[in-house]
Amino acid sequence: MGETVSVGLLGLGTVGSGVVQMITDHQKELQQRIGCPVEVRKILVQDMEKERDVQVDSSLLTKDADDIIFDSDIDVVIEAIGGIEKAQSLILKALNNKKHVVTANKDLMALNGGELLSAARENDCDLFYEASVAGGIPILRSLVEGLSSDRITKMMGIVNGTTNYILTKMSKNKLSFEDVLKKAQELGFAEADPTSDIEGLDAARKMVILSTLGYSMKFGLEDVDVEGITRVSEEDIAYSKRLGYTMKLIGLAKADNGSVEISVQPTLLPNEHPLSSVNDEYNAVYVYGEAVGETMFYGPGAGQLPTATAVVADLVAVIKNMRLGVNGKSVILPQNEKKLKTAEDIDSKYFLRMIVKDEAGAFSVITNLFKEQGISLEKLIQEPLVNQKQAEVVIVTHKTNQKAYEETYNRLRDLDVVVEVKSRYRVEEV
Amino acid sequence: MGETVSVGLLGLGTVGSGVVQMITDHQKELQQRIGCPVEVRKILVQDMEKERDVQVDSSLLTKDADDIIFDSDIDVVIEAIGGIEKAQSLILKALNNKKHVVTANKDLMALNGGELLSAARENDCDLFYEASVAGGIPILRSLVEGLSSDRITKMMGIVNGTTNYILTKMSKNKLSFEDVLKKAQELGFAEADPTSDIEGLDAARKMVILSTLGYSMKFGLEDVDVEGITRVSEEDIAYSKRLGYTMKLIGLAKADNGSVEISVQPTLLPNEHPLSSVNDEYNAVYVYGEAVGETMFYGPGAGQLPTATAVVADLVAVIKNMRLGVNGKSVILPQNEKKLKTAEDIDSKYFLRMIVKDEAGAFSVITNLFKEQGISLEKLIQEPLVNQKQAEVVIVTHKTNQKAYEETYNRLRDLDVVVEVKSRYRVEEV
């Protein structure tokens, strides 16, 4: 059995406590896998006196990060404080002091992953961040190793548990967004301030990380077209069901001829799509590879122990590398120049729901507009609105490019017969 | 850029041709990932003159395996001939000649994986076999690395595409087993001799490999309780649908208190179970970890390019290890003593369908029997059979141990009021 590996832990909140618990409870199995004991040697906390869920010897606690960064006995630093500035400065300091780093910090990795990974490589240190995307699902590893031989052409992620929970409940129980959000907050599935989840920002950060790895280009948040789920209505969901679709908040990263589009938006998927059965707070990442075809990785996207599982799996990888003397060798930096698609390059089907005047010829005015723009229609529903001289029209187009679609949408809104375009969504198939 | 890595390929059938195609088509990406060119230097074939789908220079072909095994320029041998004896002797010879080996051979790995892995370790060689289970799904890597920190308590696999295709079609189109099998053979989804698929043997081999890795015990085929899908009837599927279940051929490997049960059998899953939506020829492995909870890995279980994807991903891993000088270090041998559950340790719910005499008190005779055995019932359907003095009774039990269940089953068949027990299946939930 090798010498004990010592870990310094930054933060003892939900994730940090889970890590302590796993390292304690699974000590025997960990030793079996890595051939040496692992101990948490010091823990950075804000409040030394606070009551905690997890049992830790108070002598391990410190309020001074330098006690960890400059402890020459500490081999690996686990960052679990979250946030940007402080976490970043501590990770850089740790790397520059030749400590390997494991982090679950998606905000930071999405924002400054490139810089941190370069620092890791320069210092021959590992920097792993499996837990930053889709919690307990080993998706980053699968992209980098399992699918290393293939060319990925499309990734679609349900990478935010809160919004998936909300959309699932809206769909199953025919409830409004507001009602479900309130319920989700009561149950702890949504934060008191849910903005970053429901506006799609959290998912966008994860898509930046996935896209950067999957396409080996350095993407940033500014490359992601983001839209949340706040405007999704019960009617939208009811109509999509009638047409055989399931509504999901999808992070999409799609490559064609070397150019990539990245977006997060409420999207209609055919019911048979593997992602359509991913319900409640679960996450899944669907990866399409040129050779392998369709694959999907499913599991818990958050939660104390699932996240800790990913963090400790990264720790195992670091320690295995230490024992082989190969740390820093598996740090992967983007190798291709970033190329983003233009609106002309983006092809998709679209769903549009609108209120039109219920008068002779109204419908043909609309279909003529689509025809003029070269967009053919795949599905159509027209229904009179009771007691009003209006009808509701729902259209699903065949594939068209985004430019033609946006133009059509704008002209549609100017049509006399169109009272209002109530909603529109992207429709994605395989 | 490093020196070219040379590969010797044993076999140029479906998998072998796919490997050649991927190494050729993805050369640029492979070089980017591993930092050196990869070439297929020699290929063992049976017939030098045969027409092939893939373009290969005829000077690469040989009928003599020694041309590959003893070529000192060849670093890695890819075994794609299948079968047991010859493949085994060639792999051992290659390892003993310090060549790393990648194989897709599930039969061999299930039968003699331990011996081959020991030989690899002794020779400081890698032996990878990701393609042997669930084709394009990187499940072995996920077990060993992504979930390395957790304790796995249950694995359930849809690991045979042919039987999943058959059950899906039977269920969706209300067809008989025989009709669908015939159709599947016409379409190439089932072999001319489908025995090993439909009798569950193919799935059993994969479960041996998964269980050995997941529980770090050396299992063999003799440890798997195997039953195929040939007796699954349209009526069974219709009743399971009515009760909210989906019928799947499930490879189950479940651990409780350090003891493991392994089986392959047609199983009823609740419709909401993630595996219930895995349709057609797709495969998926559901893994339950103590900390992570539910995860699932989904993708193509077979096919030329999906399998080649896994083989070439293993090749990439071998080459990365070569460049780091750490080959043979990630070979994992079972570390725990094998412990199998007894019938008393196996807990499950069960589905039973039987024909009973339609006479007063018949039903209570049956329910009394279950009560005596301490088995309570969760769901019940009783339906008179038209024009017969008989009724059909379908029962789903609550959880019970296998011993009590088998005893009940045997006594049930002896009951006067029971005409025939038509079928019985295990019911698995989370």
Automatic annotation (TrEMBL), chains A, B:
Q: Which EC number(s) are documented for this chain?
A: 1.1.1.3
Pfam families found in the cross-reference section: ACT, Homoserine_dh, NAD_binding_3
Keyword terms: Amino-acid biosynthesis, Metal-binding, Methionine biosynthesis, NAD, NADP, Oxidoreductase, Sodium, Threonine biosynthesis
InterPro entries per record: ACT-like_dom_sf (IPR045865), ACT_dom (IPR002912), Asp/hSer_DH_NAD-bd (IPR005106), HDH (IPR016204), HDH_cat (IPR001342), HDH_CS (IPR019811), NAD(P)-bd_dom_sf (IPR036291)
Q: Where does NADP(+) bind?
A: 10-17
| Binding positions for L-homoserine per the UniProt entry | 191
Protein name as catalogued: Homoserine dehydrogenase
